Predict the structure.
Amino acid sequence: MRTLLRHLLDEREWHDHDVFLLRFQQAARELAEREGPESLARLEPAKRTFQGWYYGDRQPNVDARRVLVHLLGYSIRQLWTPAPEELGVQEPASRFGTAASHAEPGMDLYEMRRTGAMAARRAMDFAMGAEREQVGEDTIGFLGDEVARLAAAYPKVPLSEIWDDLALSQEEAFRLLESGRARPTQSRDLLFMAGALSFMMAKGSHDIGEPKAALMQARTANFLARQAEHTGLTALTDGLKSLISYWANRPEDALHYAQQGAATAEALRGTVAPWLYGLQARAAALLGDEDAVWAANQQAISLRELVVADELDALGGLFTYPEIKQRYYAVEAAVLLGQGDARVATAAEEAVRGFSNPSDPSWAFGDQAGAQCNLALVRLYGDDLDGAAEAVRPVLDLAPSHRNNGIVVSADRVRGVLARGPIRDAVVARDLRAEIEMYRPARPVLPS
């Protein structure tokens, strides 16, 4: 993805690191004088860090974000959205150069898009409201489109960008079900959509560190899936309960729910089946059961060969389990068992490479961060402290809006290993431990 940030740097011919650095430092000094702290004036992004920003592979930390916003006049969210390919952007005036305006005067492209999105939502609300006396086909279509959009967006954007839409769509699905006006042929679709939205709300509650609310939503999703007689979604919600328990360090519960889901999914051929065995492998690894890990991974590999995409896979995003994610799960199970030999190291590097392209439909920022933490752990097992620091750095540079519960726990696993053995007294290890200890945002994922 070519971001607005890259578009602006190219237009101003700041794509060379040395040229950009002069502008960045000038903006940092001005911001430090105006707002503080003084340390802001000493910010100096390395060439590799700048290239990560330029190519959209990573986002800056909090201080660097402030400087970029001051320098370029756009929010971080705007800077990391896709650049316009045909229309120019009316850039705000800046003391660092006169903006060249290619858009119509009075409103820039991003404001136009925002207004357009609001108008579209209002139009949808109107159409759905007009059908309150009966559930029309347009209502079902609108809600189905929202489920598909949110499912695809969830793994790729900060939760704060879609949380309100998720809650509103779930509320709308419940309202339609409670109205009693849905025809029998529509009830199954509504139950399925309400279940899918509750699944995403459960995942969201988990991501912001609210496991009790997450399990309540997951149980609701499971109930709706059973009411819809949708075996795949029923099994998927068991898998979600396993995932929530896994990250809450309740491996016995995680293994139970994954086994329960696998039994439900026994006759299914979608990717939910191998996912449930991948979940079993990770839970068994937390319990230290190497034989169970091996057996679960072998079953996942066998089921992968039989996969036929189903209704859940068609939704994509959170509802499918691509092969690269299966490899990431297998690596994580090995890492949790303390394995770090050449075979595991190669698999860990392949998992990181597999999540290196944000434009890939299988890409998810959470999975990418997890794979990077696993690679850091493998390198620590091999006493490669510098290599581990390099692997975990993109995770530590994630903006607070991206630091969901799973990412925080993954980073904390790295911190735990950094505190063991001879490396614990190394300067790099001490610095990384201190940085990870401060890593969890005050309000994870959602804005204040």
About this structure: Residues 4-110 form one domain.
